[in-house]
Every structure is written in C-alpha cells, then in structure tokens.
Design a protein that fits this description.
Helix content: 25-40%
Number of helices: 8
Radius of gyration: 21 Å
Structural class: alpha+beta
Order of helices and strands: HHHEEEEEHHEHEEHEEH
Number of strands: 10
Low-confidence stretches: 108-116
Mean pLDDT: 86
Strand content: 25-35%
Strand order of the largest sheet: 1-2-3-6-9-10
Length: 258
C-alpha cells in the first residue's frame, strides 16, 4: 500500500535526523488521537493532502493534551456548514485556526524588466478568509454578540514567502510615492507608502479575521532529542473587529512557538 510516508527518505532531502523529527511529530499526534477518521489518517494515501495535513499536525500537537485549551479538531465554523481545522478556548473565548501550507513558487513575473515573484501568502490568506467569512458572523462581531478570534495559519517551511509577504497582504504592498511639478520638473522627496490592495481594502468583511500566524520549521535539540520547532510570529489584522489582548497574544506565542 502506498503512503506519502515513504517519501521521508534521504533521496527526497529527509536525512536521518529530519526523518526522525517528522516521525516523532506524527507519532505524538497518533498517541493523542485514537479516532481513525481524523483528516490525517484519511490523507495517508493522498500525496497532496498528506503534506497539508502534516502542517496541521504541527499546530495540533502544540495544543492537544493541553486540557485547559479544550482543543477540538475540525470544529464547525459559526454560521457555516464547513469546518475549520482547529479551535481552542482562550480566556473564555473561542479561537479558530485555518491552516494552509505554501510551496515554492516557480512562476516568475516581469515588471518593467525586473523579475518578481508573486505573493502566494496573499492568495492563501484570501482562500482561507473565504472559507471562514459570512455576513451573519460579520454582523454578530460588529454588534458584539460574537467575541471569537479567527486566525489563518501559514506553514512557510517549503516556501520563499516570509513575514513581509504577510504584512503586504494585511497592510497593503509597499511602494514609493513622490510628486512632480510639471512646470519646473522638481520632485518631492519620495515617501514609503502602502498601496490600497490589502485584504481590508479588497474584502468588505475583512474585520472577521483577527490575524495571521506564520511559521517555518527548524530542527533543534530538546532534552537530548532532535525535534521540529516552529519559528514565526503573529501579525494582527489592522481591520480586525475582535483583537486579542497583549496577554492573549503572548499566551498563543508561548504555546505555538515554545
């Protein structure tokens, strides 16, 4: 029987230490989850879905077993029929996570003779946002009925995307602006600006999204064992209706990036 687990070989870049770290993550997940109908189990024979599910496992393992967070796999999104990947309890509020894995982008674009690379983080954020948002959820957030937080989680481990791509998606892409006097040809000093192409500019209900969590995996020694650590950050959506407090953000960072 074929399984993408067979891809954890040195031929595919998985040297012994890295292979063991991946298998440790999977084993921890299976020890905590006994239900054979979980998404990861279903994806064991599907190459594409499998690696996306592994990204979810990285997040799941930080919360599973932490009873105070009351983690739920594939909880139903409020006012929608489809589930998201994970929810937890944080200070009497629910936090929902939708996980996306990004891959290296080989599609280059030419702009005035310069080579650029499309911001794939933005596309993943928009896709996840569309899976979460609804008019009823937005209205209940606006009137204070819903206090929940919604985060999109991006696994950038196999992608060239970084923090700046996430910032561009939430705040608008960076650019320079200056003004010229047509009569004299004189120009003002260029100023760094954000273009109006962020999620908040493009999507009316962007305030539903509390923020974006991004990470890359790093192989590190923990108590004498090599394990995959998540290294990244949390960027709050400037248009967010429900914004976590500094203490709540700190707690999430302590768990996810511990």
């Amino acid at each position: 029987i074929y399984t993408p687990l067979l891809g954890l070989t040195e031929k595919n870049g998985f040297k012994d230490d890295l292979k063991k770290a991946y298998l440790w993550e999977l084993n921890e997940y299976f020890k905590k989850i006994s239900d054979n109908s979980t998404p990861l189990v279903k994806a064991l024979g599907d190459e594409n879905r499998f690696w996306e599910r592994v990204s979810e496992v990285f997040l799941f393992n930080r919360f599973l077993g932490e009873e105070s967070f009351k983690p739920i796999i594939e909880p139903k999104i409020p006012y929608r029929n489809n589930p998201t990947d994970l929810s937890i309890k944080l200070a009497n509020k629910k936090v929902y996570f939708e996980v996306k894995k990004l891959w290296s982008n080989r599609n280059l674009i030419l702009d005035n003779g310069a080579v650029g690379i499309k911001n794939k983080a933005k596309g993943s954020i928009y896709t996840a946002y569309n899976q979460i948002q609804s008019e009823k959820l937005y209205n209940n957030m606006k009137n204070g009925t819903c206090k929940d937080f919604f985060f999109i989680v991006l696994d950038l481990s196999n992608s060239i995307a970084d923090e700046y791509d996430v910032l561009d998606a939430l705040y608008g892409s960076l650019g320079y602006q200056w003004f010229m006097n047509k009569d004299t040809g004189e120009t003002t000093e260029p100023q760094l600006i954000r273009h109006p192409d962020s999620l908040g500019h493009k999507k009316e209900r962007a305030g539903i999204l509390s923020g974006v969590i991004f990470f890359k995996t790093e192989l590190e020694t923990d108590a004498g064992k090599l394990k995959l650590k998540l290294r990244g950050d949390i960027i709050i959506n400037p248009k967010a209706i429900n914004v976590p407090s500094e203490d709540e953000i700190k707690k999430l960072k302590e768990i996810i990036f511990k």
